[in-house]
Amino acid sequence: MTGSHGDPEIVGKAFADADAVFWIVPPDSQSASLQAAFSGFTRAAADAFATAGVNHVVGVSALGRGTPVAGSAGLVTASLAMDDLIGSTGVAYRALANPSFMDNLLRQLTSIRDNGVFTDTVAGDRRAPAASTSDIAAVAAGLLIDRSWTGTGTVPVLGPEDLSANDMARIMSDVLGRPVRYEREPLDALAARLTSFGLSDAFVGGMVDMMRAKDEGLDDGIARTPQTSTPTTFRQWCEQVLKPAVNA
Q: CA distances (Å), 208 to each of 108, 123, 152, 195, in order?
């Protein structure tokens, strides 16, 4: 079936006879509002969960719930509101509370390879969790296979360790066998760069607010335990994903 999963007719047909759904909202960089991009987009699916008799939903979301900055974290705030919408339907729901993805660094592959530089907006020595997308997928698959859980809740996916951008630079340098350094990008420079790509004001503001919140502790609200940790280290990710991409 081809179509948008924000379309009531499409999701109504797609969810027919489905017992479980994996829900992920695609980024809408042209949306006029973050509410429309997340909860607005999800409304059709939320309605279809009930009418189609879906029992379990696993959704991709973010860390931050319960932290002082949760209400002013842009894209993350909108994602948490989407979780509340899904939970209000009565379906059994688990939101995967994710940190930044290790795999996002692949967006900077050319700069890492050619210039030995990667950028972000957080302080270089701020340690925070990071997870590989393969580990996130494994957690989601486990929840979808064993559906003995009920009610609504959050499943943190924290990776195995907290690292700073400077830590990541050292690990990348070691694995790649070449110097890699971190450069911090000011938030106003991030906003200008995203605007130059033609992204909507709402999306740009949501990105800036999210990155500001990350530097203020958005991802620090959940302690790492064996239950909240996932196995892939950043070094392993660099060896298995980043290095082959750089050398390709």
A: 18, 14, 29, 11
The 10s digit of each residue's pLDDT in 34-43 is 999 999 999 9
Tokens of 103: 């795999």
Is there a contact between 154 and 113 (Cβ–Cβ < 8 Å)? no
**Cα–Cα dist 46/27, whole Å:** 18
pTM for the whole structure? 0.95
Torsion from C-alpha of 159, 163, 169, 175, nearest 10 degrees: -40
| Structure tokens given for 149 | 């859980």
Integer-rounded Cα Rg, in Å, for the chain is 19
H-helix or E-strand spanning residue 223: none
> Cα torsion for 15, 19, 20, 25, to the nearest 10°?
20
Report whether 123 contacts 215 (CB < 8 A): yes
pLDDT tens figures, 161-186: 999 999 999 999 999 999 999 999 99
Residue 204 is encoded by which pair of tokens? Answer: 């740009």
* Full set of structural domains in the chain with CATH: 8-247 (3.40.50.720)
Cβ 155 vs Cβ 97: under 8 Å: yes
